[in-house]
Amino acid sequence: MTEFNSQAADEPLGDRSAVTETPGFSLTAADAALAEVADSVIVTDYRGLVTYINPLAQEMLGGAVRIIPGQPLGDVLHLRDSDGNRVWPVCRHPGDPGGEVLPVARELRAALKPLDGRESLEVTVQILAVRDDPAPQHLVLVIRDTSAARRLSFRLSWQTSHDTLTRLANRQFFESELQQAIVACVNKRSHQVLLYLDIYQFKLINDTLGYAAGDKLLALLPRQLESCLSARDLFARVGSDEFAILLRDRDVEEAGPVVSRLRQAVQDFVFHWNGSESRVAVSIGAVAVDWRSPPAGQLLASANDACRAAREQGRNRVKLFSDARKALEQHREKNWVVEIGAALRENRLLLFRQPVVALQQGGDLHHYEILVRMRSREGDVIAPGRFLPAAERYGLIEEVDRWVIRQVFAYMAAEQAQGIGGFGYAVNISGISLGDETLADYVLSELTSAGVAPARVQFEITETSAIDNLDRALIFIYKLRAAGCSFALDDFGCGASSLAYLRQLPVDYLKIDGSFVRNMLIDEIDSAMVSTVDHLAKCMGVRTIAEFVETPQLQARLRDMGVDFAQGFGIAAASPLPELGVPEEG
Fold it and tell me: Which residue in 23, 102, 437, 456 has the fewest CB atoms around it within 10 Å?
C-alpha cells in the first residue's frame, strides 16, 4: 500500500499543537504542511471516519464546537446542493454494505452548515480517494469557502451598476435596460413609458443648507418615490439631481396615475435638516417607448428635453414629449434663427415700452420697461415669445441683448439732447447674457459713449437666471450699481428659492409675479402672497412692482396694500418708442 503521509522531518512545519493526531494516521511533515494551507482539509479512513482535520477546517466546521477524531464524516460535514438535498461524500470499503469505490477526483459545490449554528457558507469541495489497490484507504477533502468571493463579486457587480448614494441603478445600467426594453417593444409590440425627473431648484438646498443636506435629500426622496412604483419598474439616478424611471408594460395613458402619485409624493415630502423644514418640487418629462423609439441615449435626451420644458413652466409640472411635435418645433426654431440673424442685420428688431406707475403717488409715471419685438419681412409685428426662445437655444440672445442695450442708450441720449426725460428705462437681461463676464464692462462702455445718466437705467433679471448664474449675477449687479444703475428682480415669488436668495441679491425692486397679482381679487392665497412679498420687501428696504395689473379694482387693492408701483394692460399696453420730436398722443 502506498502511504499518504511522507516520512517525518527533523523540523516539522506549523504549530504541532494545533494538529489533531489519531491512531493509524501519525503526525508527519505532511500533516504540518496541511495545517498551514489556506484551505480547509479533512482526511477520513476508508470507513468515512475523520482521522485528520486541519485548524482552518476545524474553525469552518465547528468554531467553538470541537470536532473529535473518529467522528463519522456525515456528522461533521453538513452539505446541501443547490436543490437543498443533503450531500454525503462518504467513502466505504467495497466489501462493506453499500460501499463504493469513488473516482480518483471529484468536485462539488454546496452550502455548508457549521455545527455551531452560524449561517451557511457557500463552498466548493474537492474529493480525492487515496488508494494502492481497488479499495480506497483514505478520503481527502479540500473545502474552500467561496462565500466571500461571491459576495465580493456581487458587490463589484452591484457597484458598477448602481449609485452608491441613492442605491438606485446608475445611468449606464439604466441605458442598457432601456435599450433592451426598446428591443422588446419591437419584438412584442408592447409599450413602456420613460419618465425623466429633475428636482426643481435643488441648488437651493446645497447653497443654503450645505452639500451634506443635499446628499441626505438625494438619499431620502427616492425612498418616497419608490412607493409609487411597482416591482417591475426600473428607477435610476442619471445625473446630479436627475432621475429616470422606466414604467414597464404601460402606455402613456396608463402611466398617468403613476405620475400623479409621484407628484403627490413629492408634495407631501418634508425634508428635515438641523431643525429646519424644506419642501421640494420636481419637473417630469415623459416619453412613450414603443417599436418606433430611437436608441436609448437619444430617448433619454428627448425625455430630458421634455423635463426641461416642464421646468420652465414652474413647480411640479409634467411635459409629454412628442417626436412629431418636437421635430416641427425644431424646424420652426431653425427658421427663426435665420430670421433673427436677418432682422439684426436689417434693423428689423423693434423696441416697445410699457409704463410703470407709482401707486402711492397718484399713479404718476415712474419709468418704462423696454420690450423687444420683431418686424417680419411682410411688415407684421412678431411677439417676443415666438422668436426669443430660439434666440436663447441657438446662441443669439446675447447679440439681441447687446443690440437692445445699445439702441436704448442711443434713444435716451437723443432724449437728453432734446431736453426730454427725467424718467428711467428698465432693460431685461437674459440668463445667458448674465453669465457673460464681459457684459458689465460692455454696458459701462456704452453708457459712457452715450453720455446717459446711469441713474436713469434699470436692469431686470429673473430670479431663476440670477440663481443659475449667482456669482456672475452678483458681479454684474455690484459693478453697475456702483456706477449708479438700479436693479429689479423679475418674476419674484414663482420659485422655491425666492426668500433664500433675496438676501444675497442687492436689488432695488421686486417685481411680484403676475400669476399672483392677476387673480388676487378672487383668490385669498394669491392675495396673501402679494401682501407677504410686499411686507418682506419693505422690511429689507426694497420697493415692489406688481405685474399684470389689468383692472382699476386691482390697482386700488394694490395701492391699499402698500405696493409701490404697478404695470399692466389696466394702466397702459406696451407701445413702440415714439419718434423723437413728435409729441405722444394722449
Answer: 23
